[in-house]
Automatic annotation (TrEMBL):
Pfam family name, one: Bac_rhamnosid_N
Signal sequence annotation: none
InterPro entries for this protein: 6-hairpin_glycosidase_sf, 6hp_glycosidase-like_sf, Alpha_rhamnosid, Bac_rhamnosid6H, Bac_rhamnosid_C, Bac_rhamnosid_N, Ig-like_fold, Rhamnosid_concanavalin
Protein name: alpha-L-rhamnosidase
Catalytic reactions of this protein: Hydrolysis of terminal non-reducing alpha-L-rhamnose residues in alpha-L-rhamnosides
Gene Ontology terms for molecular function: alpha-L-rhamnosidase activity
GO biological process, alphabetically ordered: carbohydrate metabolic process
Enzyme category, top tier: hydrolase
Species of origin: Pedobacter jejuensis
Coiled coil ranges: none
Amino acid sequence: MNLKIYIAIVSICFLNIYISEAQVAVQNTTCEMLVNPLGIDEQKPRFAWHIMAKESNVMQTAYQILAASTEEKLKANDGDIWDSGKVNSDESIHVAYNGIVLKSRMKVYWKVKIWTNAGESDWSANNYFSMGLLYYKDWPKGWIGYDSAFPWDNIKTDSRLSARYFRKEFQSTKAIKSATASIIGLGLYQLYINGKKVGEDVLSPSPTDYTKNVKYNTYDVTKYIQTGKNAIGAILGNGRFFAMRQNEKPYKIKTFGFPKMLMNLNIIYTDGTTVNIDTDDSWKFTAGGPIRTNNEYDGEEYDATKEATGWDKSGFDDSKWLNAQFVQEPTGVIEAQMNENMRVMNTLKPVSITKLVGGRYILDMGQNMVGWLQIKVKGLKGKQIKMRFAESLQSNGELFTSNLRNAKCTDLYTLKGGEQESWEPTFVYRGFRYVELSGYTYQPSVNDFLGKMIYDNIKTVGTFETSNTLTNQIFKNAWWGIAGNYKGIPIDCPQRNERMPWLGDRGAVAYGESFVFDNGRFYTKWLQDIRNSQKEDGAIPDVAPAFWRYYSDNMTWPGAMLLVTEMVYKQTGDVAAVRDNYPAMKKWLAYMQDRYMKDYILTKDSYGDWCMPPITIEFGRGKSADKKYPSELISTAYYYHFTQLMMQFAKAIGDDEDLKMYLLLGNKIKNAFNQKYYNEKGYYAANALTDNIIPLYFGMVPQSKVDQVFKNIVYTVEVTNKGHLSNGLVGIQWLMRCLNDYGRPDLAYTIATQKTYPGWGYMIDNGATTIWELWNGNTADPKMNSQNHVMMLGDLLIWYYENLAGIKSESQAFKKIIMKPEMINGLDKVNASYNSTYGLIRSNYTKTTSQLMWQITIPANTSALVYIPAKSRNDVSEKLNSIKDIKFIKMDDGRAVYEIGSGDYSFVVEK
């Protein structure tokens, strides 16, 4: 039976990470690879696919995967590398490769077909991946670089180091079948062949602790190689390798040395012979090029008068360049980078340009963004254009730069003269909305500038829109903030002299992000960074990679490792995320217990409920938020919560002994916690909102006390706070879900839509286009008031998707879905979608005084329980004639519960 079923090759999973996506129909041979599937170093890749069927209630019953050494063999259905045969299984994600041993540079072509409860599909389109350099000996014998500064550099006080330019010419006289370049350029690189930039990536590779691991990127460069003479060019920037401010606090800031690179260009000719072009001391280099300095905090200085035209092409006179030197390799293990590199993902045109005194101008991008500015300029040779960046303005129209601390955030461009010149930086980024321009001899136009938004090449997978304009704007602000702070690591902010991957910022926030961005690969890489930062005794830092040596020992910051592991496992179904991180998590918990637990109370905390809002906006005016209020209540409650997560993890990997151990330990902690902190008046400790929210949401409150504790929470919000939150970073991660799950989604909505202080709406009402670091970010001491942080999002996005839209996973990866939106007075429409691992889930409802209309999409190979607000099942009708695929289960608290399979549904409820 030839079904109308299409298979979209969603991904090839390596190291539990989705690598490529091709939205293709079976009959369509065109593939759009969203992530380069080259240079894989995992010998047991796993596969996934989407099933797209016009029929409803389609479930996979079997699959067959073919993998072949050539595309011709695959077309002939010859799986000489692997033929899985027909496998009776409903698994369509994380399907493990089980063919012949994969070797370095091997290219594998593959396709899949499936059987369903409705019949058999055709084969999918052909796809491919290729293996990277699996062994140390596959790489060239030497790293090249130059371990010294040049006279024009200043590395003692300013970390000013110019970019290094490398080049190599070679001959290619035969017809080429394929060519692949594998490169490690530290800290950052750009690669050119015959004058053309290779790929679209920028600020590559992703940062790591280079003493632990270094990442390489692989590119198909076949189209760049020409018959005859060829030239390779590479520019090395500083990035995190030649550390920012490295001499400022050597006890705190880790540095790794001068920029260096390792590269292999492998060419395969049509006659079967191969040649390798490797880095060695025959390469030439100079630091006298136009990039005079590049520092992530301070900016980039570019002198166009020093451009060497044709330096990356054959025939260039490099007689005055130096010979490259062999240098010591970094101690980190060489690994293929499985997460996406950064790219220019969006462009913005400025909205205005305003003249200031002294021949200066203020450019307004209209949006707080992260990236850089492209300029077009005309002028005399040697004339300099200066660009200073900031997030906001002072009342007099000047840049507000106090919150940048000592980050200069300045670019300097020296003109070469003549016709119009166009320039943008190469190795820096910053967070900004406004740019102060100086050095112009004429009035520049907004058309001379273009803002380029840069973040990891991660697909946006979620949409969210409601009838409430403030809610929509908060979501938009969240999108801009989350995307901008994806920098190969999840940084806290993009503007000041910090930009660090603080663990505490991303606990529940990463979970919320996962509904908006396809961030599984990104956070899997970060979990590896956290593992690599763990000390032998078990300690985990507050920042990972540990570019800053902060090991303060507390539960809430390092504990993000458990929360992010839970997120990756829950949202993607990747049990290997649990398996890979379990030993490190167990070791850390044992370390904290041995060192700090007394009578089952965890006595060590560092930050408390970090950045709680001052009692009024004026009370916090001019005051620093950098104050710590350690809380043993928080640390003990979190330890308990982590025992519950470890029980889930132990069950997932089949460790029954650990499951019993954590069950016993958790019960003892809960009993000690309640004995110490519970007040018989129905609250914990001093009755702070966070002190009550955490134990209630974590399930620590005795059942007989739950109602009273929740009444105290409600009283705090409604009466004491007059409908506002009063949580810091810790409490805000659980607030919205706690209010919702205990029956007050309306109160959560009140908090979420407040325009007065404190709240997300207050930020917007005061000009925010991203999310502030502080609830009182407009009045606090400017040394700590980033205007682009994500930590205060807490669990807001989770609540948007799981509760307002009603899209929630009952089992890992949304194999079983719960659709249960909250019907809140004043919110008449919610339209949301989430492209899950199995495919698109959509919830779009509109309600009036007389009717509820709810459109739902469920992906193939999944099922859902749908909770429809209705007085009885007789009030519910389905307009798409899909009744045969609907099974009524029960009435449950004013909702008709149905089980449905895949497909599109349109439910109507007459009130």
